[in-house]
Hints:
InterPro entries: CBASS_pafABC_assoc_protein, HTH_11, PafC-like, WCX_dom, WH-like_DNA-bd_sf, WH_DNA-bd_sf, WYL_dom. This is YafY family transcriptional regulator. Residues 7-62 form the Helix-turn-helix type domain. Residues 237-312 form the WCX domain. The protein has helices at residues 4-17, 23-30, 34-46, 76-92, 98-111, 114-126, 141-153, 223-232, 248-254, 278-286, 298-316, and strands spanning 51-53, 61-63, 155-162, 168-181, 184-191, 196-201, 205-214, 238-244, 261-265, 268-275, 292-296. By secondary structure, the chain is an alpha+beta fold. The chain folds into four domains: 4-63, Winged helix-like DNA-binding domain superfamily/Winged helix DNA-binding domain (Arc Repressor Mutant, subunit A), CATH 1.10.10.10; 79-126, no CATH class; 141-221, SH3 type barrels, CATH 2.30.30.520; 233-316, Alpha-Beta Plaits, CATH 3.30.70. It has a five-stranded antiparallel sheet with strand order 6-5-4-3-7. A hairpin with a 2-residue loop joins strand 9 and strand 10. Helix 4 (76-92) runs parallel beside helix 6 (114-126) and helix 10 (278-286) packs across helix 11.
Amino acid sequence: MTHPLIRVLALLELLQAHAGLTGTELAGRLGTDVRTVRRYVAHLRELGIPVEAGRGRHGGYRLARGYRMPPLVLSNDEALAVVLGLLAGERLGMNPAAPAGAGALAKIERVLPDALREPLAAMRDTLGFTAHTVTGRAPEAGVLLALAQASRRGRSVGLRYESWRGEQTERDLDPYGVVFHAGRWYVTGHDHLRGTLRTFRIDRIASVVPGSGAFVAPAGFDPVARVASSLARAPYRWEVEVLIDGPPAEVARRLPTTVAALTPAGDGVLLVARAERLDGMAHLLAALEWPFTIRRPDELRVALGELAQRLAAIARA
């Protein structure tokens, strides 16, 4: 059963976000009746919160003009969700800027009552993660938000972009979606400069300006799948092809699409990937439970042999 205080706070949130809701509308959203809504309004007024009621059958409730809400009104569960979200975002590298996340957490803790602040501080200080902290070059918050808004509204944007080689270009983009993966932010969409689908790291975008064009993303387009596929085909030093003698569905569960592109081949799977270093690819293949045949490059066989020698030496020690 929901505590009445929770519903009073929910009413306060509704009045802040939707001025003019009638008693019937508020009752429907709160799951109660109009008489109870009037009682909740009276409670708010007793607390010094100026709630005005419009006259007439269709008159609604609203907060007095110019009234500013308290800095934060959260239930225990809501406060825990916010704090955990900030901590997880920092650990995963999702926060556009570390000072912003730390500042938000400090403000939340400062305005909470002692009975709630102390348990949440204990959670912050004692929470552990199995995953390592992800660190990376954070994108500029304004750039990230501008791309997200343009994607939702279906509006083109102009970008000033710096490639991994340090080359700077200006281009127009139809941003189909924003994706976060492994500590980095990406935007994918139609690049007018190249006339094709492209994926860009957002931390390499220096500026975003609104464009004049509008777009509609292709039906069924999946930004996450597109970014994963792009990363698997990134222009690294080595091109790798390996035939894995295993069931395609099981192999796909073991190898994420960001690591390699997988296509059925006979009774097995053809792995196609690019890698900057072959020792990591050797470790990946050695961890598989199925036989495999290296098609290219020959240097991968050398890396796999060196790994086998190291493992054999450890086993003999």
